[in-house]
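Blinded run. Sample ID left blank on purpose so nobody reads anything into the name before looking at the predicted structure. Input follows.
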Amino acid sequence: MTSPLNPFVGTWAYRSLLNDPDLATSFNDLEFGRGTLVIAQDAAGSLTGTIGGPGWQLALYGGFGFGSAEPTRFRGSGVIGGEEWIYDYFALAVPVWPNSSPTLQTPALIGSITRVIPHSGSSPGTVNPAGVVASFYAVRQSA
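Blinded prediction complete.
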């Protein structure tokens, strides 16, 4: 169940996009990642969970703040195909719009992600470098 103090807890449909300013770039060419984001709150008040999709999953750990923007930061880490992957995430809960309603506005997170360490790319001999930053959004699937 979603905590009134923690809007991040729940299961989210996650999509991330490369930050390419060229409007001629095909939308499909902007995809950085997609998967299911599951966020829980442990007894100490820290965020835990997982993010993953077919063939990959990272364990999450982080925290959240209080305030009107309700920020959170967490780190995803795991071993994928024998290699360590580490990504850092920053997210904000999209505020409820006063002219909307629960049937018109699905809860969403917006934020950015950065690759902390390099790992092999999807094509043989390629490397996904550290430091790449992408934007993401996640839409609540369930509390």
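Unblinding after everyone has recorded impressions. The chain has a mean pLDDT of 91.
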